[in-house]
Design goal:
By secondary structure, this protein is α/β, with parallel strands linked by helices. The chain has helices at residues 18-30, 45-54, 94-100, 120-127, 168-180, 191-212, 216-221, 223-242, 251-261, 269-276, 282-296, 301-313; strands spanning 9-14, 37-42, 56-60, 63-67, 71-73, 84-87, 110-113, 132-133, 135-146, 149-162, 184-187.
Length: 314
């Protein structure tokens, strides 16, 4: 950890799973010997050991690469303040994970969460009042295949971020750091609309596939389950509208088309987590909608019914 250039732009990736491994891997590979940017990983166990020994092996649709970060650690005491902290953990691990990396967060640190759901920025601001917290979302299909190996498929690899309070210079700088590393990143003009457009898709799909315990193809081919999905989409669209986020009416038919184009057996990560019997993102993807509906006096009966049923399975 010694002899670092103090004037480098320092980035820490928190959570080196599919998302963190893909975007963090691209950053670490590009800036390996950079005098201007330093990229570190916060990871644990065999995964961290393998990265420290042989680098992160990133297999993508554009080709394979080996990413060797400036450092990989699971020791909070070894951390130093960074300019940009990119959070790529599961929503149920957010607070605990951020507590572990607290030493890297200073008054000058930007925190960028890339989590499923829309509640992460508010939760982070509660923990670090006065710290600059941005909004972000990604479109990428990537997974941790084995310790030290992340595989991406589908060829999307899109990252959107933004902030209504950050200066244009800060946003442009982060955008250029990503883009120089070959990341298809964009500082979105209306990041909340971008995030909610994705949330409309993932929340409804995660809730429906988990509740019905089946794939997207099976849901769409049966009229009763298709109508259930449409009710979820309509209720969430109404919640978004009450929050001042207008999601156009043609977005839902476009999403159904997109869902229909996926392989028949496609499901959600939350459904997979339920099948494994482990922790799930139920609170961020389903419970959040129920709570916001109640707070905004927007009826969400379908969400409420499915949330209660899924909570009983947790």
């Amino acid at each position: 950890m010694e002899n670092r250039h103090t004037d480098k732009y320092k980035i820490l990736i928190l959570g080196i799973g599919g998302i963190g491994g893909y975007f963090g891997g691209k950053l670490a590979a590009h800036y390996r010997d950079s005098p201007e940017v330093e990229v570190g990983f916060f990871a644990r166990g065999a995964h961290a050991d393998e990265i420290a020994k042989n680098g992160l092996q990133l297999h993508t649709t554009q080709g394979n690469l080996t990413a060797r970060p400036a450092y990989v650690t699971d020791n909070p005491d070894a951390l130093h303040p960074v300019d940009l902290l990119i959070c790529c953990v599961k929503s149920y691990d957010l607070e605990d994970s951020l507590q572990r990396v607290r030493p890297c967060i200073s008054e000058n640190t930007i925190i960028l969460p890339l989590l499923n759901g829309v509640d992460a920025p508010a939760r982070i601001r509660e923990m670090f009042q006065g710290t600059e917290v941005w909004e972000g979302c990604v479109y990428v299909i990537a997974r941790l295949a084995a310790p030290g190996i992340v595989k991406e498929k589908g060829g999307m690899g899109l990252l959107y971020f933004g902030s209504s309070e950050a200066s244009p210079d800060k946003l442009r700088r982060v955008e250029s750091v990503f883009q120089a590393a070959g990341v298809r990143a964009e500082a979105a003009v209306d990041i909340l609309h971008t995030i909610w457009a994705k949330f409309l898709f993932i929340s409804a799909v995660a809730t429906a596939t988990s509740y019905l315990d089946t794939s997207m193809g099976a849901i769409l081919e049966k009229e009763d389950s298709r109508q259930l999905l449409l009710r979820l989409l309509g209720e969430l669209q109404a919640v978004a509208k009450a929050k001042g986020i207008i999601l156009s009416d043609d977005m839902i038919p476009a999403m159904l088309q997109r869902m229909a184009s996926l392989p028949y057996g496609t499901t959600s990560s939350m459904h997979s987590d339920f099948q494994k019997g482990g922790k799930t993102e139920l609170e961020s993807l389903t419970g959040y909608v129920v709570r916001e509906g109640e707070a905004l006096d927007v009826p969400v009966p379908t969400y409420a019914k499915l949330y209660a049923a899924l909570k009983g399975r947790s």
